Structures are given as structure tokens and as C-alpha cells.
Amino acid sequence: MVSWTSPVTEIQPSPENHFGFSIDQYGISPQQVIWTVPDTGAFEVSATLIDKRVNAGISRFPNGSMECRIVDSLRLQGEVEGYVDFSVISKRIPEMEIAEHIPCMSDEDCPEGMTCNLMTETCEL
């Protein structure tokens, strides 16, 4: 479940939230998942989808993104005709953790008894 604080007042046009994550930047085919959802305050992520991404491979530091976007336009009439588009975007970078995956850049980043696989930037036994 992903949740956030939705605005208290109604905003028109309605904002959309864009969420994304990537957990395998060094894989044979790096994968990124992106959702676009209404600004309701929460949405549920499919466990099956997450499991498929994890089973495809994990490397490096997992990363995610969150953007709230409001887009509107205004039609100009008169001497000058056309449209003016407006957009407001608020971006956040959430911290992500994957159970049993410890990203690293050197052996010092790993718990005792583990070493850093520099090719995948992952602590290993």
C-alpha cells in the first residue's frame, strides 16, 4: 500500500500522482514500473507485480519517485488566439528498502561477514 496526504480542499482540475520504482539497474533488461493514479491519498500495489520484479533481479540501490501533477489550459480569444498551458509539478524521492537486499559501494558498507559485489553493488556472503 502506498499512501500520502491528499489535499483537504477540492482542486480543479484534479491532480494526478505518478509513482515509479526501479530495483535492477544492472540487469539484462533493467526494469522500471510507473503508475498514474488519482489524488485519493492511497493506492494498492499488486504483490504479484512486485514479486515478478524482485524475481527478475535486484542490483544497486533501489530508487523510487513520486510526482504530483496538475495540468490545465486557457483558451485565448481576441487579438491573439490560441491556448496557454499551465502545469505544476511537485517531486519527491522516497527512500526504498528491499528485504534481504543490502546495497553497497565498498566492503565497508556491508555487515560483518559480507563483502560488496562491486558488479551488482550488493552485499553477499
Query: What is the radius of gyration computed over CA atoms, rounded to a whole number of angstroms?
Result: 20 Å
What helical percentage do the residues reach? under 10%
- Which band does the percent of strand residues land in? 35-45%
Strand order across the largest sheet: 3-2-5-6
Query: Uncertain segments of ≥5 residues (pLDDT<50)?
Result: none
Question: Overall mean pLDDT score?
Answer: 83
Structural class: mainly beta
Specify the overall morphology: elongated
How do the helices and strands follow one another from N- to C-terminus? Answer: EEEEHEEEE
Structurally, the number of domains stands at: 1
Distance N to C terminus: 31 Å
Strand count, sense and closure of the main sheet? 4 strands, antiparallel
Please report the total strand number as a whole number.
8
Q: What is the count of helical runs?
A: 1
Descriptive report:
This protein has 125 residues and is mainly beta. The protein has one domain (2-100). It has one helix at residues 47-56; strands spanning 2-3, 16-24, 31-38, 42-43, 63-76, 82-92, 115-117, 122-124. The protein has a 4-stranded antiparallel sheet. The chain has a two-stranded antiparallel sheet with strand order 1-4. The two termini are 31 Å apart.
